[in-house]
Design goal:
Elements: E1 14-15, E2 17-23, E3 26-32, E4 35-37, E5 45-51, H1 56-63, E6 65-70, H2 76-82, E7 98-99, E8 108-109, E9 114-125, E10 129-141, H3 154-157, E11 161-163, E12 168-170, H4 184-192
Antiparallel strand pairs: 1-11, 2-3, 2-6, 4-5, 5-10, 6-9, 7-8, 9-10, 11-12
Bound molecules: flavin mononucleotide.
Amino acid sequence: MKRNLGPVNALYPSLTTIVGAVVDGKPNFLAVAHVGIMNHGQPQYLSFGLNKKHYTNQGIVANREFSVCIPGEDLVVETDYVGLVTGRNTDKSGVFELFQGELAFAPLIVGCPVCMECRLERVLDFETHDVFIGEVVATHADESVLREDGKVDLARVRPLMFDMASMHYWSLGAQVAPCWNVGKGLKAALRGG
Ligand SMILES: Cc1cc2nc3c(=O)[nH]c(=O)nc-3n(C[C@H](O)[C@H](O)[C@H](O)COP(=O)(O)O)c2cc1C
């Protein structure tokens, strides 16, 4: 028997990211766990909703560039910190060691194993949130988290999974089964039936 919880968003866990932008000439960062993948293919678009009260929004709009970095479990304290304090009254530009990629206004974090530079595609104006849609321009990954085929090994990234119900960061679990693959037997059986 299931209980109707009302209009509860149950799309958790979600990936915890750190979004960076240049605001008033300084890098600023905030924790963002509501990130969406808009499509698969080229160009590659991603989205996230930022409360209009956040300081970072104005930098993204002004420069039309931003970064999305994926912290590992070792960066949980710093990640939480940039999600607790606002750049409106606290300078967060020195929290991380930074590096420059292709874009001038996408501050990238050395300590994050994977970082993406994005160009702003469009902003959706919701009542309380700006929904930013960005095109991924370049992705930088530490050699240490790459598999032999050059793809990112999630097990080595050790991302912080966010859960609203427990208000905790969680670890990634173990692999379950290969995608577009494990269902093939059932597909064949049902087709035959
Ligand atoms: C784990 C975590 C996830 C968060 N995810 C979001 C989010 O997806 N969207 C949002 O608007 N705020 C989110 N926040 C809140 C902002 O990170 C926070 O309010 C931040 O201090 C705003 O910084 P700024 O004013 O310097 O931009 C999150 C906070 C935490 C701790």
